[in-house]
Amino acid sequence: AIFNQACALLGPKNKYQGLHMVVTAGPTQEPLDPVRYFTNHSSGKMGFAIARAAAEQGADVTLVSGPVNLTPPPGVELIRVTTAEEMYRAVMDAYPKADLVIKAAAVADYRPATVHGQKMKKGGEMAIPLVRNPDILAELGKKKENQILVGFAAETENLQENATGKLDRKNLDMIVANDLTMAGAGFKADTNIVRLYFRDGTEKELPLMTKDEVARQILHEATQLLTKQ
Amino acid sequence: AIFNQACALLGPKNKYQGLHMVVTAGPTQEPLDPVRYFTNHSSGKMGFAIARAAAEQGADVTLVSGPVNLTPPPGVELIRVTTAEEMYRAVMDAYPKADLVIKAAAVADYRPATVHGQKMKKGGEMAIPLVRNPDILAELGKKKENQILVGFAAETENLQENATGKLDRKNLDMIVANDLTMAGAGFKADTNIVRLYFRDGTEKELPLMTKDEVARQILHEATQLLTKQ
After folding, report:
1. Which of A145, B76, B127, B203 has a 20 to 30 Å separation from A54 between CA atoms?
2. What's the whole-model pTM score?
3. CA–CA separation, B13 vs B8, rounded Å?
């Protein structure tokens, strides 16, 4: 409500002033020993672009990021984490005061069941037992009060089915889906091609654009949802 | 022999002219699916420093590197690879014409037994079956003719025992050992503290120095071995 009033009073330059946002970005790293770890190809570019675009337009942004090689956006509170468990704690701490959460991080679903204190020595055949990491997005969905919750689905097949399934299951308001197999989309690129799915069943397809442009579109749609509440 | 004659004729500026070197650097990435992979914390800095120092002094350097965020040294032939199997093939191709091989890469000992073509979906508990990667250094040791072969041992415990065991087992001429638990040593730092172990049972401890200085020391010791042949 405070955000709505602020929006009405302010011009486009500071159009997100008064908005408290949490954005997550990057991969997580799940250690097996002091040297080896599991991770994924997330570059953090999408989450950083969202944090930058929001801060430029006056939002109060907490960016929780896994290990990435990116310059922190000016005016953003950056919390660096390594593992999914660290990201879970940082996001949960920031959640109560957030109006909008955009979870662009690619959090590892699993981690090695045992983290060895010393570098493991070679043996014969082996298998690494894994355990589930906390599901940050599902937890946010369960604990949701007035927050708008936006997730991502990066898929290599069955894009719509996987994305809308996740939207429902995790109690999201919007999900940003991209097909990692398309040229110009995905983790390493500076561009993205996304489709937005909303809780009311509507969807919106965005053309190929830079991640900065995608970031502004996602922010526009997400804050529209906030003013509709 | 050609290298020895060249050394005798040339001054210190081009003191490695005529020397054919293969240097490996960085981690390898072992994919589980299009998104997820296993890797390690190697930054590639040590291998890149060696390649740069050697090229600056006239050596003909092939640098085979896993994924890193480093600027390629000028005058070096850089071959980028991702997995241990790709590194194995690139190194074996370059081996016959090499006088000196310095293997600074942190190659994954294991890879997931199955690489899934699509992004894997969450299930319950799981374990990832692994298979052994080719042991590049051991293969180089077996196929050695006149080459000088230098390996690295990055350890968190039993440094001397692990390093000299590897030296013998893999038929190396010298091994560069560092204790990852020491401040100023290891993967991410710009400095290193190393101990050199030689085939004849001698060893040499170097003080804390930059990776560029360590690189020059390693090159000096390795080319000494070459002239002794």
Report:
1. A145
2. 0.88
3. 13
pLDDT exceeds 80 at position A2: no
CA B151 centroid distance within chain: 6
Question: Is A118's CB within 8 Å of B156's CB?
Answer: yes
- How far apart are the CA of B155 and the nearest CA of chain A, in angstroms? 7
Q: What pLDDT shows up at residue B125?
A: 65
pLDDT in tens, A156-210: 888 899 999 999 999 999 999 988 888 787 777 888 889 999 999 999 999 999 9
Interface ipTM above 0.90: no
Is beta strand B148-155 parallel, antiparallel or unpaired with respect to B174-179?
Answer: parallel
Determine the 3-state secondary structure of A89 from DSSP.
helix
B31 at interface of A, judged by CB pairs closer than 8 A = no
